[in-house]
Write a structure and sequence with these properties.
A: mainly alpha; ABC transporter involved in vitamin B12 uptake, BtuC; two-stranded antiparallel sheet; 11 helices; B: alpha/beta; Rossmann fold; four-stranded antiparallel beta sheet; binds adenosine-5'-diphosphate; binds magnesium ion
Chain lengths: 286, 254
């Protein structure tokens, strides 16, 4: 049993890092735009489905399909912010939240029409042959997903903390009016945040889609998972959503040891416990 | 330099400012006093573009700015150091100053200006790598003023910079504001307490219920019985520990 532990932790890490990709975007959108984006998981779904479409239907290599699909979803996010959320900004916050629910339905059902309901496997050139790394069995696709996600998280960290533009984005996130008063272009920051958040989620879908299956229904669960992660990480904390994502992934993976049927319930149980005992999230120093 | 003409502001149906007109000349130190809810903050927000006015005009150096964005107004030369400081809690002191110059293109000059701000606020230099949420209220106020200075404003607007600060720190903040003024920046300072603002100002306005109730030379207003009763009264409530007039009688005749 215990010798399987590294394997479960590794599997959890893989899933958890993809949760983090989705949750970072949700956190940033929540922080800068004040919107709880119920459609966010749909960007994850679109990332997977579009990658499938490009790789399976247009016969492009997977390594081309991933960046193209991420770019398409990023562009879609940018457009949606312009066309939908910028118009709603001066209305009540509730109208934006309702808009995200409607948007989620449109994206999910649009994908259903376009891609059909069946789970599909994204074709890749990765060998399906298992690799052994010490005590862990894995595959090329999984290693690729872990490496790309880790690199992306590091890049995001460097961008947000060590560039002027990223720092301005964090400032907008922490105190929007003060950011406006130093000539930070708030509207552009919102657009970039929404686009970036959509793109990160799409990357998660494109990477995990090559390991599991893709289907239009997969976005809704992902939205819920991202909410759990955002709450675990302490509402509005970007490092919190990274650690929270990995934490949830590993917790779920270890939970499958007990019962794989209850895997998805673990997150909700964790949230209830955390809300009771650490309402500011796992990682807020009190 | 700045001229506000018949400016009105509303929040939904609530009128916060009614037909305000005022001017500020280059190099002037103007105080704006009034009770809580009088509309002082709204006036600064209207000038800096945070709350676009319902009607009226704001002219800065000949340009109408009442419909301009915050960014355009900052670049035109108006800095707004907002109420309650509004520092970014997880961002370092140094980054606050760098971001203060976000609208500027002259990157080389920016580094020099950061050093200049540290020269004005030596205490925050020691904390330059610290995130601002960990600073004391007085230090946060210094950072907020420093951040506003980084846009190289011609007019610096300060909204109750002394709110919640210890008397000794209030003195330091006032000294800094006077030094900034002496270096040629026009000042528009909002205060609830006449005793804090008027001794340092050239001219002053008294705002009541969204309208200008009184205006004139600051030292005249200080002697005005209505102003004394309404806006020097805080001394009795212990808000003001000392009378700045007694300490510095020459302040208004600079
Ligand atoms: N965001 C807002 N929404 C609605 N009413 C507001 C808002 N901000 C201020 N007000 C109202 O406008 C009036 C002026 O407020 P304010 O400018 O903040 O006054 P002051 O700064 O002098 O205390 C007050 O009656 C206040 O209740
Ligand atoms: Mg106020």
């Amino acid at each position: 049993m215990l010798d399987l532990l590294p394997q479960f932790v590794f599997n959890g890490l893989l899933i958890g890092m993809s949760y983090a990709l989705v949750a970072i975007g949700m956190t940033m959108i929540f922080g800068i735009m004040n919107i709880a984006n119920f459609a966010h998981g749909e960007f994850y779904m679109l990332g997977g489905c579009i990658t499938y479409f490009i790789a399976a239907k247009l016969n492009a290599p997977y390594l081309v399909a991933v960046p193209v699909s991420v770019a398409v979803v990023t562009g879609l996010g940018f457009l949606l912010e312009r066309v939908v959320f910028r118009q709603l900004r001066l209305k009540s916050a509730m109208s934006s939240v309702l808009a995200t629910i409607g948007l989620g339905l449109i994206l999910q059902n649009g994908a259903l029409i376009f891609f059909g309901p069946q789970p599909q496997a994204i074709p890749t050139s990765f060998s399906a042959f298992p690799l052994q790394l010490g005590p862990i069995f894995t595959t090329e696709a999984r290693l690729f997903a872990v490496a790309v996600t880790a690199a992306t998280l590091v890049l995001m960290y460097v961008f947000l903390n060590h560039t002027l533009y990223g720092t301005a984005m964090r400032a907008t996130f922490q105190q929007t009016e003060a950011a406006a008063l130093v000539a930070i272009p708030i509207d552009r920051m919102r657009g970039i945040t929404f686009a970036l958040g959509a793109g990160l989620a799409a990357l998660g879908g494109a990477l995990l889609g090559a390991i599991f299956f893709v289907q239009p229904a997969m976005g809704a669960t992902e939205s819920l998972k991202a909410f759990i992660v955002v709450i675990l990480g302490g509402l509005g904390s970007i490092p919190g959503s990274i650690v929270g994502g990995i934490f949830l992934g590993v917790a779920e993976s270890l939970g499958t040891v007990v019962s794989s049927a209850y895997k998805d319930a673990i997150g909700f149980v964790l949230v209830i416990i955390i809300m009771l005992y650490r309402p500011d999230g796992l990682f807020k120093k009190s | 330099m700045l001229s506000v003409e018949s400016l009105s502001c509303r929040y939904g149906g609530v009128v916060a400012l009614r037909q305000i007109s005022l001017t500020i000349a280059a190099g002037e130190f103007v105080a704006l006093i009034g009770a809580n809810g009088a509309g002082k903050t709204t006036l600064l927000r209207a000038i800096s573009g945070l709350t676009p006015p319902y009607e009226g005009r704001v002219i800065f150096n000949g340009q109408p700015i009442e419909r301009a964005s915050c960014a355009q107004i900052v670049r035109a030369g108006i800095a707004h150091c907002p109420e309650e400081r509004k520092i970014w809690p997880h961002i370092t002191v140094q980054e606050h100053l760098r971001l203060g110059a976000f609208g500027r293109k002259d990157t080389k000059e920016v580094a020099r200006d950061i050093d200049r701000v540290y020269a004005i606020f030596p205490k925050v230099l020691e904390r330059r790598k610290q995130v601002c949420g960990t600073l004391s209220g007085g230090e946060q106020q210094m950072v907020a003023i420093g951040r506003a200075l980084m846009s190289r404003p011609k007019l610096l607007m300060l909204d109750e910079p002394n709110l919640g600060l210890a008397p000794l720190v209030v003195e330091q903040v006032i000294d800094v504001i006077r030094a900034i003024h002496r270096d040629g920046t026009s000042i528009l300072m909002v205060e609830q307490s006449a005793a804090l603002a008027l001794p340092h100002a050239d001219r002053a306005f008294v705002l009541e219920n969204g309208s200008i109730a009184k205006q004139g030379r600051a030292r005249d207003l200080l002697q005005d019985p209505d102003v004394k009763r309404a806006y020097l009264g805080e001394e009795k409530q212990g808000r003001l520990i000392q009378d700045p007039l007694a300490k510095d009688p020459l302040a208004t005749t600079r």
